[in-house]
Amino acid sequence: MGARFVAALHAAHDPAELPAVRRRVAAGDEAIGMRMRDLFAAAKAHASMPLDEVDGLLDSPVYEVRMGAFCILDVRARARRVGDDERDELYRLYLDRHDRITTWDMVDRAAPSVVGGRLLGRDPTPLARLAAAPEPLRRRTAITAPLWFVRHGGPDDLAHLFPLAATLAGDPEPSVSAAVGIALKHAGGRDPEATSAFLATHGPVLPRPVLRAAVSKLPPADRDRLLAR
């Protein structure tokens, strides 16, 4: 099935998309050039493939093949009937092959459902370890995975996001700092009081564009106060 999936991706090749894809991928990555909606559709159609074949896809030098593998993990993790054992397997595969993540969108596609979904209601220590990692994309996973807590967790789950954001607030890597702003933006929509309190302390450390993103769902008075600092 893995070979059929790769064939489906190549069949969706669109020469007009290749320049945009090449601008997005990491140095050394190969690319097919295709619309993302076609990639997502192919991943959904092949989501039942055995996980060892998904693992094999991650050995590919081609961006879309690896992106497709992470899309499959995401589809599986979001399934209504996903069991704890399968959720554990998806989580382990994501973390064990994190070195095959070379772009921020691979993180954003799978980290919330696969990593955040597995850690919902559990000890968040693995995220703290990721936040301390030297690789920027592991740090992006640390702050992107808790988006699942924002959407699906209780107050205790949401509270885990703020220590991670504090750790990464001054991160010099744009792909990480931008993700901090996104996480805080969504946290502000869920718990504006806690988010405002966090930003009152840590907002001055955030780059200005990140702070603007972080306050965007807060009440206007809080936005104005925090941006005026």
TrEMBL record:
- Classification of source organism: Bacteria, Bacillati, Actinomycetota, Actinomycetes, Pseudonocardiales
Q: Name one Pfam family in it.
A: DNA_alkylation
This one is known as: 3-methyladenine DNA glycosylase AlkD
Signal peptide location in the record? none
